[in-house]
Description:
Layout (H helix, E strand, L loop, with lengths): L4 H22 L5 H14 L4 E6 L2 E3 L2 E3 L4 E6 L3 E6 L6 H14 L3 E6 L5 H4 L1 E5 L1 H4 L4
Amino acid sequence: MKPTKSIIKDLTYKINGAAIEVHKNLGPGLLESVYHQCFAYELEHRGLHFQSELRIPIEYKALSIESKLRCDFFVENLITVELKALDDIPPIAEAKLISYMKLLKSPKGIMYNFNVINLYHEGQRTYVNDFFTYLDD
């Protein structure tokens, strides 16, 4: 089935719910690895297909590059998710997420920073790229 904007929106809602559930139960101040494990549990509990620590393939012209780049989660082969537990998200983290989205041909990316009081208002950033604009409504 070809993804549509409404499918992406529904999937985003489920992913946000998983992240909020983790944050509601654990709060801020823990290691990213703890949030990672709990977020994976919540995605699985919601019946979502995902890949964790997915190695990012890089194709440059006719060259395939073996990279050590890994995204935290690639959900339903559509949405790239990065988790953080920092006081502030550095610009390079945003740049990496956008690059991962491009390399994976992912129409949407979400970054969650669990080191905040209110995840929904302070700790979530959403990104879209050209792949999103070509989706049907």
